[in-house]
Amino acid sequence: MAITELDLSALWVTLRLAGMTVLVLLIVGTPLAWWLAHTRSRFRPVVEAMVALPIVLPPTVLGFYILVALGPYGPLGRLANLTLAFTFTGLVIASVFYSMPFVIQPLQGAFEAAGKAPLEAAWSLRASRLDAFLTVISPIALRGYISAVVLGFAHTMGEFGVVLMVGGSIPGQTKVLSTTIFDHVETMEFAQAHAISAFMLIFSFLVLLGVYVANRRFPIHVS
Amino acid sequence: MSRLVAHFDVRYPSFHLNVSLDVPTSGITVLFGPSGSGKTTLLRCLAGLERAPHGFMQFGNDVWQDEAKGEFLPLHTRPIGYVFQEPRLFPHYNVRSNLLYGYKRISVEERRISIEQVVDILGIGHLLERRTHKLSGGEQQRVAIGRALLTSPKLLLMDEPLASLDIQRKQEIIPFIHRLHEELRIPVIYVSHAINEILQLADLVVLLKEGKVVGAGALNEVLTSLEFRKSSSSLLVGAVLAARVANHEPQYGLTQLEFKGQFLFVPLQPVAIGQPLRVHIFSSDVSLVVGRINAPTSVLNILEATIIEIRDMDQSSVDVLLDIGAPLVASITRKSFANLGLKPGQHVYAHIKAVALNEELTE
């Protein structure tokens, strides 16, 4: 069972995809999660339900609509004036939607737990909104961020249906580990499928273990 | 004299705050009222934590909010300190970093209050390197006060800072509030619904009820006002007097106080002659005698008084508002009132059965 160059390039695409997705989600997700944690708007449940959709929806459904949207005649495709389907960028966009609940929900929970009280205290101590968020809220919500990063990363690594629908399986561009496993199985290369599967299993386990250990060892005191 | 002027009109689903405030920017002003009267909301509006859609606030010559012109200074640009009901210390910083959080965010020229001063006044020198969750509630609140002071505020807003503490801890903090007010000369607006805190701290009282100001003035005036006595059910204070120590009689264990030419005896106080001492008298401890007393009495404290007003309180009692150089209220029974035939303008003698002291507060 040899790990081929193809497998390595799939690993690289996977890691890049997961990293980019988490990065985008942290940037987009922080204000959204903050809004969800503190808004009194009656649209809050609507937004929450939309964010949570990928948890229950078959990935193919999500993938299908994103594919249509990203295609040359879809709204996003037209906006960008190019075809995003079957490209790495398209894959990142799809992954952002697909992994959104796994980033938003831990952040929202952490922001809700932190509450507005420390923020108000920071404002009263001459900190601007951004300053207060960076120096007070984000450290208090650190556990939420760790969970969000890890879950978002791991969940993106594990996606399959959406990738297949939106990205296809173009080596070096949109072929990721999960689709590589599928290809190996289809061509009866069980040994290689096993190697990659085992790698993903151990990797996922170690990442989660790391998070739980870190959480236990460095408790963030919220008194 | 510099003043703080504010008007706020805010409607909440279940509550309407509509107040006008005009108080001097000195001393301790207590916003007093039952819960739900709008004290905290008013304080938050003053701070800029809430933005009243119809609001105006001026501190001295500085306008902080004028919605008619669309002006609103965000909280973090206002020179105020705010102490919340709970300490709200930052859990990821130790005590020192908490104290320095605001200090680091003001310019060097603005720093009128030093860390040494705050540490000394609040007695928190031994806590500096501790994590905040290792502190007692009283210690946490002292750090929170220190943190606010270190922004060298021109106005300190305190929202029931003692509410979450037990009685012992409260008594531990009250002297600090006095010291910071006296030594740092920062005007304080203090929200409270505890009569004890008012008696010990207030120079001025603003009485709030259902989102409106129903009385404002010097402590004694407000406490003896009809509005206050009708709204306060618990402890009925007849007067708070800013007296002065006139003499000590150690052989009897007494200290004689002078108040506007009249004298009162209290248990011996370790306070030098000539020093001020704040005392209060409960209205139920005052009884009235008409005409000169010839018969000897064991009552030591007898004050000459003129009846200003008779107030019907309930079925069995009336309040008699007296002038002893300051207002004093006597609660007497309706029957005694009828027997004595009391009328406004009449001269009477007020027998004071007990004088309460604010032990901690030898101002």
- Indicate the low-confidence ranges of chain B by residue numbers: none
SSE sequence of chain B, one letter per element: EEEHEEEEHHHEHEHEEHHEEEEEEEEHEE
Count structural domains of chain A: 1
CATH topology-level fold name of chain A: MetI-like fold
- Give the uncertain stretches of chain A in residue-range form: none
Reported CATH architecture of chain A = Orthogonal Bundle
The CATH superfamily of chain A bears the name MetI-like
* Oligomerization: heterodimer
How many runs of DSSP E, i.e. beta strands of chain B? Answer: 21
Strand content of chain A: under 5%
Biggest chain-to-chain interface with counts = A-B, 23 and 27 residues
H and E order of chain A: HHHHHHHHHHH
Range of helix content of chain A: over 70%
Total helices of chain B: the number is 9
Written overview of the protein:
The complex is a heterodimer of chains A (223) and B (363). Helix content of chain A is 78%, strand content 0%. Chain A has 223 residues and is mainly α. Chain A has one domain: MetI-like fold, CATH 1.10.3720.10. The model of chain A has no long low-confidence stretch (mean pLDDT 87). Chain B has 363 residues and is an alpha+beta fold. Chain B has two domains: 3-232, Rossmann fold; 238-357, OB fold (Dihydrolipoamide Acetyltransferase, E2P). Chain B contains nine helices and 21 strands. In chain B, the strands form four sheets. Chain B has a six-stranded mixed sheet, sandwiched between helices. In chain B, helix 5 links the parallel strand 8 and strand 9. In chain B, helix 4 packs parallel to helix 5. Chain B starts with a strand and ends in a 6-residue tail after the last strand. The A-B interface holds A 117-118, 120-129, 131-132, 135-136, 139-140, 142, 220-223 and B 47, 49, 74-77, 80-82, 84, 86, 88-92, 101-102, 105-106, 131-133, 144, 147-148, 151.
